[in-house]
């Protein structure tokens, strides 16, 4: 949740670069992801390269904001759907991993974290699914993202009872209080029922043929090597909460 509150600005990362890393602040053509339909979704415990995921395209988070440190972890994601549930999985080839939080709605973006921001309807709000490396979740529905001072104008913290309808699995399970220099590969997967979105947007219907808008992120705001990676370009401002910059995800 980069730049989530004006009093919680992300720290400056040391300047650095790594091969294959994009630091462009310009806005190129937006990417587009096809969410394939599956008759049966992969089990939440399935590995990223499990045959059950073979039908899903791989999305890579390959751009990092210039304020990031030299650490640019290779981060990939996959999504499938069956018409009424999303299956989402991240895989991170990481270092400097820290994930002490275990309670729902903890500020996971400060830790080793992957994020899925998604807007089902163009005239409604968006959801920010933010998972740390052990699967702890922060989830809000944000109707209006910014006031002039940078705070959120209108948002709701998704109640725990609704969030409990998600199934979340992480390859790492124990809190990581002392940073692990690594290297360390970790995954987080989630099954997100359509009913969770509909609790805030109203009926959405079968996902077949729909287009939503989303972005995917990797961050670790308060690690020893802070970084802010994204799938769709966010521009000069270090702020993940820019729904106008979300790119299309099209449901097969």
Helix-strand layout with pairing:
Elements: E1 32-37, E2 59-61, E3 63-64, E4 74-81, E5 85-94, E6 97-99, E7 113-119, E8 126-132, E9 137-144, E10 154-157, H1 160-163, E11 167-170, E12 176-180, E13 184-193, H2 194-201, E14 211-219, E15 228-230, E16 247-251
Parallel strand pairs: 1-4, 1-16
Antiparallel strand pairs: 2-4, 3-15, 4-5, 5-13, 6-12, 7-8, 7-14, 8-9, 9-10, 11-13, 14-15, 14-16
Question: Could you explain how this protein is built, in words?
Answer:
This protein has 252 residues and is mainly β. It has one domain (59-251): Immunoglobulin-like (Sandwich). The chain has helices at 160-163, 194-201; strands spanning 32-37, 59-61, 63-64, 74-81, 85-94, 97-99, 113-119, 126-132, 137-144, 154-157, 167-170, 176-180, 184-193, 211-219, 228-230, 247-251. Strands 1, 2, 3, 4, 5, 7, 8, 9, 10, 11, 13, 14, 15 and 16 form a 14-stranded mixed beta sheet that branches. A two-stranded antiparallel ribbon has the order 6-12. β8 and β9 form a beta hairpin. The longest helix has 8 residues, at 194-201.
| Tally of structural domains | 1
Poorly predicted ranges? 4-27
Coarse morphology: globular
CATH T-level topology: Immunoglobulin-like
The value of Rg in angstroms is 17 Å
Quick recap of the structure?
By secondary structure, this protein is mainly β.
């Amino acid at each position: 949740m980069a730049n989530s509150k004006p009093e919680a600005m992300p720290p400056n990362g040391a300047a650095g670069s790594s091969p294959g890393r994009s630091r462009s602040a310009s806005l190129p053509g937006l990417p587009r992801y096809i969410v394939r339909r599956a008759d049966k979704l992969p089990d939440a415990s399935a590995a990223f390269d499990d045959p059950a995921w073979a039908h899903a395209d791989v999305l890579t988070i390959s751009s990092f904001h210039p304020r990031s440190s030299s650490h640019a972890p290779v981060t990939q994601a996959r999504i499938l759907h069956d018409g009424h549930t999303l299956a989402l999985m991240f895989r991170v080839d990481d270092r400097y991993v820290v994930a002490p939080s275990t309670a729902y709605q903890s500020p996971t973006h400060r830790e080793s974290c992957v994020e899925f921001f998604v807007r089902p309807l163009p005239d409604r709000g968006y959801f920010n699914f933010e998972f740390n490396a052990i699967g702890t979740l922060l989830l809000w529905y944000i109707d209006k993202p910014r006031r002039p001072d940078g705070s959120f104008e209108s948002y709701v913290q998704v109640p725990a009872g609704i969030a409990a309808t998600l199934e979340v699995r992480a390859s790492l399970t124990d809190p990581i209080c002392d940073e692990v220099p690594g290297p360390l590969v970790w995954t987080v997967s989630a099954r997100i029922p359509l009913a969770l979105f509909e609790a805030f947007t109203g009926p959405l219907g079968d996902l077949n043929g729909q287009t939503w808008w989303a972005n995917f992120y990797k961050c670790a705001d308060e690690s020893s090597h802070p970084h802010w990676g994204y799938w769709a370009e966010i521009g000069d401002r270090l702020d993940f909460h820019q729904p106008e910059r979300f790119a299309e995800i099209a449901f097969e």
